[in-house]
Amino acid sequence: STGNVGIGTTGPGTTLDVTGTGRFSSTLTASNGLTVSAGSLTVSGTGPHAIGGATNAQVQLALQGSFTGSAGAYSLYIPSTLSPAAGGNAAGLLIESMTLNKAGSDTHSLFASASIKAPTIGAGASTLTNAATLYINTAPTGATNNYALLIDSGTVSLGSGNVGIGTTSPGTLLSIQGVGNFASTGSTITS
Fold first, then answer.
1. Residue 103: alpha-carbon gap to chain centroid
2. Can you tell me whether residue 35 is helix, strand or coil?
3. What's the pTM value of the predicted model, to 2 decimals?
4. Based on the number of CB atoms within 10 Å of its own CB, is 17 exposed (0-12), middle (13-18) or buried (19 or more)?
5. How does DSSP classify residue 186?
6. pLDDT of 191
7. Nearest to residue 64, comparing CAs of 49, 78, 79, 47?
8. CA 47 to CA 59: how far, in whole Å?
9. How far is Cα 88 from Cα 106, in angstroms, rounded to an integer?
């Protein structure tokens, strides 16, 4: 009832101290947190999996629940330092070329590598200056070309709403505050 239990060790430092590998054939419950101090954490199986709530049959990994931060509050925070091999690329978040399989019948309305829906802004007495579905703080520095947003190729489709360049309140489909430069000799503006 008291003391520590050691498996594979004669000097256990915690209530249960296992030196070597272990396997649980059923559920392992950690009611006060789980720490991986070295190595990696692998979750096998295709899901569904969940952090912070119940699983969702439509989601492979769900991160959900209510969280109150000490200052800001973020669902996922990635403050990593990445050092690729010579000639390699690096990205804070990589969504690899995934395969999205169509069903045998019916019609799908959208397939996308990433789908971002607008946040719901809850009621409160504080003042909120800006809200956005996607916010890009600034462009990086240190490269030959630095972009806040880089679209390598493909068609860009903007649905409803106005686009403002140099203005936060565009009154038309395209509103430019400042000087525009159309470098191509074939550029035309049609009214």
1. 26
2. coil
3. 0.70
4. middle
5. T
6. 60
7. 49
8. 8
9. 41
User: Which pLDDT belongs to residue 110?
Assistant: 92
Distance CA 45, CA 41 (A): 13
* Paired tokens of 88: 């390699």
Pick from 133, 156, 142, 155: nearest CA to 90: 142
Low-confidence ranges of the chain (pLDDT < 70): 1, 187, 189-191
Residue type, 175: S
76 HSE (CA, 13 A, CB side): 7
The three-state DSSP-derived secondary structure of 77-138 is CCCCCCCCCCCCCCCCCCCCCCCCCCCCCCCCCCCCCCCCCCCCCCCCCCCCCCCCCCCCCC
Handedness of CA 71, 72, 76, 79 (dihedral sign): negative
3-state secondary structure at position 171: coil
Residue with tokens 């954490």: 41
User: What CA–CA distances, in Å, run from 176 to 12, 157, 169, 170?
Assistant: 69, 19, 10, 8
